[in-house]
Write a structure and sequence with these properties.
With about 475 residues, the protein is of the alpha/beta class. The two termini are about 30 Å apart.
């Protein structure tokens, strides 16, 4: 019996088409990736060109100006910076949120009762009362107190801004603390924190001199703050005057100066120019589409090349066309896990196999087993040896069902690994003499199938046929 020569595969165009179609996940992914990639590269390139052109144009305009004109732009820029500072202060300062004609305040008045006495019969000692008063006043108006107030009263404010809301002064044996805040309900919490902190400091300040800290009075009131009203008016007047100066300067500026000034203003305020010199580039839909088409084309080429140059069995029909061996049937192997949107795969396979009658895996195995049993009876065979080029890798569930069904057909079953590589399997297979090969698509290798078939023929083994798991 002659050995099987290697043969060139014929590509089935219909099978190639379905392979591409079933690779729809890769096609979509590559299409999106290349669409974003090419579109993003185009956008980045256009943006760099746009910025370079803008900067070059501004530099050219700056070079065309005289030193006096450049100084005018610098002076105008300083005025705009001052306006921005005033407006930022007016918008962010808690003090500016307070109505000067209805200002809510809380006032705490402390008295320091000193234990200092003057005794003529003993050495004179300096009166330390003023030092104690100064210590309390400094602490009440210092950073430690403001930090404690912010934490204790849970205020949304910085220490610098909080200092504007507090007034502390001491005279004789009294320390006065006055506090205001835009939210009236917070004044009670502020007052509690101040009293707690002042009480804690009483023991510490005993080192200056023996004394007693007494809270003389505490009250909340609504007052009119003429100083705050005047301060608000002063800021508003300053802003108006600066804007008038800026407008006067702009009237004497050329178009080039105004454009450069506007560019400088947009940098400071982080706003877009009202009249850009060029259209700012955007994401190109055209290049995104071209990138998507290129990505789809690339993955389709990859699928075609993968099918053309693959070393693994692609379909059951190749058993007849390449090896000239009887195919005893094929069994569909069920996937162990469902892939993402596997329902689409099922629909595509249903369309692909619409002309074939759909059988369950159990029905397919029964049909294959009956075909094998009939062939064995015709040849007077009651014992067969099952092997394959990748027998240890084929679907275990389908292989077990096939063995059970063949045993039910009163056939003795023996099995082993690839007879081309495993000496024990070769010896056992030749002793039985009747070989049934089981191969699996996308698993079994063309050359390995050819090697085991040639070896079986050289050893005068009876090849019953091949069953293909797909």
């Amino acid at each position: 019996m002659g050995t099987q020569e290697k043969m060139e595969r014929e590509i089935n165009l219909q099978e190639l088409f379905w392979n591409i179609l079933l690779g729809w996940r890769s096609i979509i992914c590559f299409g999106l990736i290349f669409a974003l990639l090419l579109g993003g590269v185009k956008y980045a390139k256009d943006m760099r060109s746009y910025r370079a052109a803008q900067n070059a144009k501004l530099e050219q305009k700056e070079q065309e100006l005289t030193e006096e004109e450049k100084q005018q732009i610098a002076d105008a820029g300083e005025l705009m910076a001052r306006i921005n500072e005033y407006e930022k202060y007016m918008n962010t300062s808690k003090l500016m949120e307070i109505d000067p004609y209805e200002k809510n305040i809380v006032t705490l008045r402390y008295r320091i009762k000193s234990d200092y006495t003057f005794n003529y019969t003993k050495d004179n000692q300096k009166d330390y009362t003023d030092d104690v008063v100064t210590a309390y006043a400094n602490y009440a108006g210092g950073g430690e107190m403001t930090r404690k107030i912010i934490e204790g009263a849970k205020l949304d404010i910085d220490q610098e801004d909080l200092c504007e809301l507090e007034s502390v002064w001491g005279n004789d044996t009294f320390v006065n603390i006055e506090f205001t805040y835009p939210e009236k309900e917070k004044l009670e919490d502020i007052s509690k924190v101040i009293k707690a902190q002042m009480s804690q400091k009483e023991e510490e300040f005993q080192s200056i001199g023996s004394h007693t800290l007494i809270l003389q009075s505490e009250y909340q009131n609504v007052v009119v703050d003429s100083n705050l009203a005047e301060r608000r008016n002063t800021i508003a007047t300053n802003v108006a005057n600066i804007k008038t100066q800026l407008d006067n300067m702009k009237t004497n500026m050329s178009e080039q100066q105004l454009e450069l000034l506007e560019k400088e203003e947009s940098k400071d305020t982080k706003k877009k120019e009202e009249k850009p010199a060029a259209v700012k580039p955007g994401f190109s839909l055209k290049y995104a589409v071209l990138g998507g088409i290129f990505g789809v084309f690339l993955i389709c080429i990859w699928i075609v090349c993968k099918m053309l140059f693959t070393a693994r069995l692609q379909n059951s029909e190749e058993i007849r066309s390449l090896y000239g061996v009887r195919m005893l049937g094929e069994v569909a192997v069920e996937s162990e896990k469902d892939r993402f949107l596997s329902v689409i795969d099922k629909k595509l396979l249903a369309v692909k196999n619409r002309r074939k009658k759909k059988l369950s895996q159990e029905q397919q195995i029964k049909l294959v087993s009956a075909n094998i049993a009939l062939s064995c009876r015709q040849q007077g065979v009651d014992c067969i040896y099952i092997t394959g080029s990748e027998y240890e890798k084929i679907d275990a569930k389908a292989a077990d069902m096939l063995r059970q069904e063949l045993s039910a057909q009163n056939l003795q079953i023996k099995e082993g690994e690839n007879i081309f590589y495993d000496a024990k399997s070769l010896q056992e297979g030749m002793e039985v003499g009747n070989l049934l090969f089981v191969e699996q698509t996308n698993c079994s290798i063309y050359d390995e199938i050819s090697n085991e078939l040639n070896l079986a023929k050289e050893q005068n083994g009876n090849i019953l046929g091949i069953v293909v798991f797909v």
